[in-house]
Design brief:
The chain is an alpha+beta fold. The protein contains three helices and nine strands. The protein is globular.
Length: 131
């Protein structure tokens, strides 16, 4: 997998590496805590239900979705995806129009969800959201 997610006190940095950088058409995204409205784990099929047209990147049904996609019903909002065949993905919603949502496949997604949620709330000791 070609991405690193670095979570600090008030910043979430997502760095794309290698082929993922090319497929996502993105080198990095930095999100400040006040830009994050939520972080959740979601079944891939549920996240895909809000996936619109591919604007740039790669897509092969059942194999991968990488790059920028529109959000149906939300003109001007784009989602950034970097997922392959996992059944569960990490979804980060933001206040930005681009990206309004980031959907990632990461082996440590449960811990990342909890840490990102604490950055969004501004409380590093916040309780993790219920499963």
């Amino acid at each position: 997998m070609g991405l690193d997610v670095i979570v600090s006190e008030n910043l979430v940095s997502i760095r794309f590496r290698g082929l993922d950088r090319a497929l996502c058409l993105c080198r990095y995204i930095d999100l400040h805590g006040d830009e994050i409205t939520g972080a959740a784990l979601m079944p891939h099929a549920e996240a895909k239900a809000l996936l619109g047209w591919r604007v740039g990147g790669g897509y092969w049904p059942g194999a991968f979705a990488t790059g920028w996609f529109t959000t149906p019903g939300h003109r001007g909002q784009l989602q950034l995806w970097d997922t392959y065949r996992d059944d569960e993905v990490l979804v980060i919603d933001t206040t930005r129009p681009k990206p309004s949502r980031i959907v990632l496949q990461h082996p440590d997604r449960r811990r990342l969800r909890d840490r990102i949620a604490s950055v969004a709330s501004g409380d590093p000791d916040a309780e993790p959201p219920p499963e």
